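We read letters as residues; the fold follows as tokens. A sample entry reads:
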Amino acid sequence: MANITENLNALRTLVHEAPTLSGWAEICARLDGVQSPADLAVCLDYLDGHLSHWPMAMRQGPAHWLERRLGWEEEPRWSVVRALTLRKPEGASEAIRRLIDTGALAGVAHLTVAFGSWQKPKSRATALDIAYLTTSPTVSGLEVLILDDQELGAEGAQYVGYSPRLSSLRRLSLRRTGLGDRGATFLARSPALAHLDALDLAVNGIGDEGAVALSGAVALSGLRELELVGNRLSGVGAAALAESTALSAAVTGPWQHRGAPARLRGEVGGVELTVFEGQRLTFGREGNVRLSSIRIPEHHFEVRVQSGELWVEVLSPELRLVVNGARVEGRALRAGDRISSGPFEFVVEATPG
């Protein structure tokens, strides 16, 4: 077993190397090996004064430390954690409540809620879970909040957008959370998100009404990035964003030459998707558009608009991509074309122009 001098020397070497995820894992493993409470206190005190240059996103809380915290056990090592990803496969409501009640969010700046999956959609966090989370004083230090794939809907967007506890947020990601136009409107009227730099609302069923609301969002004037790929905007919504006087030039600029979008419709569920010039929409188990089947690669194919044409291209060749019954690697698309990925089919309803 290493003594305190050996542990401090090892930590000093790790801390002063270039920050990496593997380096952080080694730091956590070294701390796990310190058994003496007095020695551990010395190591943590050293790290507290020497980790300031490490990106907060890298300082992820190991799962076994989190389990101890959620189980109301002492875990002094938690003081060095600044980022947390919740992946508990079941019991989202209980996990969020324990996270709040145990004070485990204290000091955390980056929070990713990743409950559920395409295999277990029923285990996702709901709007009420998010309400409990966003009204807790323990979230006041959050700078990044990622809630992709959770069941927020418009109600959840309202809880997020109107929470005074989230006034320190710099980045908010709500991909595939079912916001729709109402949810986008709640966010546009948010009194609490004035410090946001980046907002990701991809694949949320947002149409022109939501785009118009966002275009007038004075509270979001500080945004540098606004992601809306895979929604239901038409040229009307694009024009509203391009002509916005409330949003920054960094946000409005890309919309000023996008014209009319390409439109696709999913045969299952009738999902409608739009893609504008310069945008890319990925399809797969982990794509912008989630295809929930074990047969589908994580990123199977992408659809993009380039120089006024709609293109499809294979990203993973392990599964055939079929257009109009013929296997393809990549090609331009026309209205009426059918794209098939395993059991999923999408129809091109319109191309740009």
Observations:
- The chain has eleven helices and 17 strands.
- The chain has a mean pLDDT of 92.
